[in-house]
Design a protein that fits this description.
single chain, 256 residues, alpha/beta, Rossmann fold, six-stranded parallel β-sheet, disordered N terminus
Length: 256
C-alpha cells in the first residue's frame, strides 16, 4: 500500500530518499520540486503510521461517535404531538408542558398527567418514521455504534414507538427516569447504561432546542436536525443537518 504523504514527511527521511544535501541545497530543491521525488514513495512504503502526521488521524478519531443519543418526536418520528392542543386542555397558556406541570398542585397535576398520557399514547400508536430513519438506524447498527433514545415523553409512549417500528434501540431514557432535557442528566445516564467510556465523544441528535442545550451541558457533540428551518434558539449546535438522510451522509464521511 502507498500512503499519501506530505512534503514534510518525506523530507524527514532525506538519506533514504537519496536527497541528503546541506540546508541551502535542500531549501533550493524544495523551491524547485515542491513534491517528493518518485523514489521517496518506495522508501516510505514501510514507514509506520505513527510516524505520519498525527493530525489527520486524530481529527478522524475525534469525529467518531462513541454513542449516538436520539431524540424521538420530530427526530426519529414525524412530529407526533399537538402541543397547542395539550396546553389548551391543561390551561397552561404558552408555557412548556413539563415545566408547567412541575409547579401544579397535586389534584391539577393528576389531571394534567392523564391528559398528556392520553395524547402521547394516541400519537405513538399512529406514529410514522421520518424518511431515512430506518436506513440510518440499520447502518448505525451494522457499525456497532451504541444507540439510546432520550425523550421528554413517557416510557410507555417510547416503548410503543420502538415496538411499532421495530427500532434497534434497547436503551430508553424518558421523563419517568427522573430529570429530563434540557438537563444533561438523562444523556449522562444513557452513556452509563451503554457503558460508553467517554461521554464527550457521544453525539446528541435532535430537532429541538432542548436537545442541543442538553448535549452542550453534557459536553457532547450536538447535531441539530433542522428540517430546513431557521434556527430560532441561542444554543449553537456542533453540526446542523436538514434531515436523517444528511445525518447518514455525515456519518459516512468518517473513516471507520
Amino acid at each position: 500500500m502507498i500512503w499519501p504523504i506530505s512534503s514534510s514527511v518525506w523530507r524527514a527521511f532525506p538519506a533514504r530518499a537519496g536527497i541528503a544535501r546541506n540546508r541551502r541545497s535542500r531549501q533550493h530543491d524544495r523551491m524547485r520540486h515542491p513534491h517528493p521525488p518518485a523514489g521517496a514513495y518506495h522508501v516510505l512504503l514501510h514507514v509506520p503510521r505513527r510516524l505520519l502526521p498525527a493530525t489527520r488521524w486524530a481529527n478522524i478519531r475525534r469525529m467518531r461517535p462513541s454513542a449516538i443519543l436520539f431524540d424521538m418526536d420530530g427526530t426519529l418520528t414525524r412530529p407526533m404531538l399537538d402541543f397547542a392542543a395539550i396546553r389548551a386542555e391543561m390551561g397552561i397558556g404558552d408555557r412548556p408542558i413539563l415545566e408547567a406541570m412541575a409547579e401544579m398542585e397535586p389534584a391539577r397535576l393528576a389531571r394534567a398527567r392523564q391528559i398528556l398520557l392520553r395524547h402521547e399514547d394516541a400519537a405513538a400508536a399512529q406514529s410514522t418514521l421520518n424518511p431515512g430513519c430506518a436506513e440510518l438506524l440499520r447502518w448505525i447498527e451494522s457499525r456497532r455504534i451504541p444507540v439510546a433514545l432520550i425523550t421528554r415523553n413517557s416510557r410507555r409512549s417510547a416503548e410503543i414507538v420502538v415496538a411499532r417500528h421495530a427500532l434497534p434501540i434497547r436503551i430508553l431514557i424518558t421523563r419517568d427516569d427522573g430529570a429530563y432535557k434540557p438537563d444533561p442528566a438523562p444523556l449522562l445516564l444513557a452513556c452509563r447504561r451503554l457503558a460508553v467510556p467517554n461521554h464527550h465523544d457521544a453525539w446528541m441528535v435532535g430537532d429541538g432546542p432542548h436537545d442541543v442545550e442538553a448535549g452542550l451541558a453534557a459536553g457532547m457533540k450536538t447535531v441539530w436536525i433542522s428540517h430546513r428551518r431557521q434556527r430560532d434558539f441561542r444554543a449553537l449546535p456542533w453540526k446542523t443537518v436538514a434531515d436523517p438522510h444528511e445525518l447518514h451522509e455525515l456519518l459516512q464521511q468518517i473513516q471507520w
